[in-house]
Amino acid sequence: MNSQQFNSQILALSDKMFRLAKSILRSSEAAEDAVQELSMKLWEKRNKLDDVENMQAFTLRAMRNLCLDTIRQRHDEDELPAEMEFVEPNPYEQVEQSDLAARVREMIDRLPELQRTIIRMRDVEGMELSEIALITSLTENAVSVNLSRARQKIREKIIYEQKRVEETVWKR
Amino acid sequence: METMSDLLEKYFKGETSLAEEQVLKNYFLSGQISAEHELYKALFDTFEEEKQNNATAPLKMVADKQSSGKHIWIKTLSYSGIAAALILALWVIQPAKQSDTFAIISGRKIESPEYAQKYAVAKMTKVNSMLRSSMKPMRSFSTVKKGLEPLRKISETKEKIEDIKNKVQF
Question: Is the pTM value of this prediction over 0.90?
Answer without folding.
Answer: no
